[in-house]
Automatic annotation (TrEMBL):
Residues 4-178 form the Bacterial bifunctional deaminase-reductase C-terminal domain. Coiled coil: none annotated. The lineage of its organism: Bacteria, Bacillati, Actinomycetota, Actinomycetes, Micrococcales. This is Dihydrofolate reductase family protein. Gene3D superfamilies: Dihydrofolate Reductase, subunit A (3.40.430.10).
Length: 201
């Protein structure tokens, strides 16, 4: 059974809106689009690329798909070659018009479609797609959560753990790693059950 892996870039206060550039998602008058760029260093970049090893499909929300489809087909290099080669699956409430070769649409039954992807692929990655991620969190339709946390506070913006968050157990897969500019990489696996409670004494 294949894995569904969520890859997100987050500020220390959990904002994941528009890390890549000002035009990525300016909704709600978000003023910090592109916040990731000043904090990127060689080590964190290596982690991001390395995290794509074994990826054999992309699963994207509509906004992220449109951004990727307008950019990656016109680029060269390892990431472009990978993204252009592997199948792309898109969650969208609107009637789709595929722009990118290898694109398919999930349809209305998201849980069934994600389960089907698990039977066809080994490593499906969800990159960005913050609104869609809320559905995956709510339905626990993921196996791994890969977070790159950047040492800034923005105060406003769409959060990683927003309307889709439900009580869940996660297990840290490896010790967190820190880059020279303070980016912290954390990889978690979704575990069974809900968080327990107790008394500290």
């Amino acid at each position: 059974m294949g894995l569904i892996q969520i890859d997100l870039f987050s500020t220390l206060d959990g904002v994941a809106q528009a890390p890549g550039g000002p035009e990525e998602d300016p909704s709600d008058s978000f003023a910090f689009g592109g916040w990731q760029a000043p904090l990127t260093d060689e080590e964190s970049g290596t982690w991001i690329v390395g995290g794509m090893d074994g990826m054999d499909a992309l699963l994207l929300g509509r906004r992220t798909y449109d951004i990727f489809a307008g950019y990656w087909p016109h680029q060269d290099g390892y990431i472009a070659d990978l993204f252009n080669r592997i199948p792309k699956y898109v969650a969208s409430r609107q009637d789709p018009d595929p722009q990118w070769a290898g694109t398919s649409w999930l349809g209305a039954d998201i849980p069934a479609a994600v389960q089907d992807l698990r039977t066809r692929h080994e490593n499906v990655h969800v990159i960005g797609s913050l609104d869609f991620v809320q559905t995956l969190l709510t339905e626990k339709l993921f196996d791994r959560l890969n977070l790159w946390v950047y040492p800034i506070l923005l105060g406003t913006g769409k959060k990683v753990f927003a309307g889709g968050t439900v009580p869940s157990n996660l297990r840290l897969l490896e010790p967190a790693a820190t880059s020279p500019k303070g980016v912290v990489m954390q990889r978690y696996a979704l575990e069974e059950g809900v968080p327990g409670v107790g008394v500290m004494s």
